Amino acid sequence: MMGHSHAVSGAMLYAAAAPILPPLLLHTHLKPADILLGTVLAAGAALLPDLDHHDGTIANFLGPVSKALCRFVAWISGGHRHATHSLLFVALMGGGSWAGVHYLGRWFTLGLTFFLLAMAIKALRIHLPGEGHTTWLSVVGLSTVGTFVMDQWMPSAPGWLPYAVGLGTLAHLLGDSLTKMGAPWLWPHKQRYEIVLIKRSGNDMETKVLVPIMSVATVALLLFSTVGPTVLG
Questions:
Q1: What is the predicted pLDDT for the residue at 133?
Q2: How big, in percent rounded to 5, are the helix, strand and coil portions of the chain?
Q3: Is there a contact between 214 and 171 (Cβ–Cβ < 8 Å)?
Q4: Which of 17, 105, 122, 228 is the most buried (most CB within 10 A)?
Q5: What's the confidence (pLDDT) of residue 187?
Q6: Stretch 215-226: mean pLDDT, rounded?
Q7: Above 50 in pLDDT, residue 231?
Q8: CB 206 within 8 A of CB 5
Q9: Residue 179 phi/psi, 5° resolution?
């Protein structure tokens, strides 16, 4: 599955879960701004498992820094679609985000926001075209501005941020399980699980069917969860 598709799937999963999970687990209802911000960051989080792929969509999202990071993650995780494509990784990302937000404070939150936003911008191609330094510098610039704007709207310790990270990461596993390679959900158990709908990354099923459906669903879910309650109220 392509990076753009993963990003859209992460956004859709968070937008769908936002009216449900926080009331159940946090005993609170998210504000419209929290839902919108979380949807954007979940799109970036959906690229996290591909930090094990030095040639993937996000390998160059921060230039040489991200390139080196991806090579390191690939080395420690066993290569592409191994440890980072498992439920253990989802738990580590969600749990680590929760710990960082609650114990490391605002600087961790803003740093994570910048990182996720940069991945979302890269995956959704909201930057200058190309793969050179001009492109990744534009990603850095846009992410910096976006993080500053989000800082104005984001609570001091956003309880929804770990859910955005966890759900985005989970969406990636779901997407890769629609391909022939599948995903090792129960790693270190090596069996891969798949229901093959996408026989080749970037084919018509992915780009002309699944992505448009997920895009429309995300917009509809956001309208329902942000505009709908205001209108109904």
A1: 74
A2: 70, 0, 30
A3: no
A4: 122
A5: 92
A6: 91
A7: no
A8: yes
A9: -110, 170
Best CA proximity match to 39, nearest among 233, 224, 232, 228? 224
Amino acid letter, 111: G
Quote the pLDDT of residue 132.
67
Helix (H, G, I), strand (E, B) or coil at 198: strand
Confidence grade of residue 181 (pLDDT, cut at 50, 70, 90): confident
Distance of CA 157 to the CA centre of its chain: 19
Region 149-174: mean pLDDT is 93
Number of Cβ within a 10 Å radius of residue 195: 10
Distances (CA, A) of 188 to 42, 68, 77, 81: 25, 24, 10, 12
Q: What is the DSSP string of 122-176?
A: HHTT-S-SSSSHHHHHHHHHHHHHHHHHHHHHS-SS-TTHHHHHHHHHHHHHHHH
**At CA 201, angle to CA 216 and CA 167, rounded to 5?**
50
d(C-alpha 126, C-alpha 122), whole Å: 6
Asked if 19 and 225 touch (Cβ cutoff 8 Å), the reply is: yes
SS3 label, residue 222:
helix
Please say whether the beta carbons of 57 and 50 come within 8 A: yes
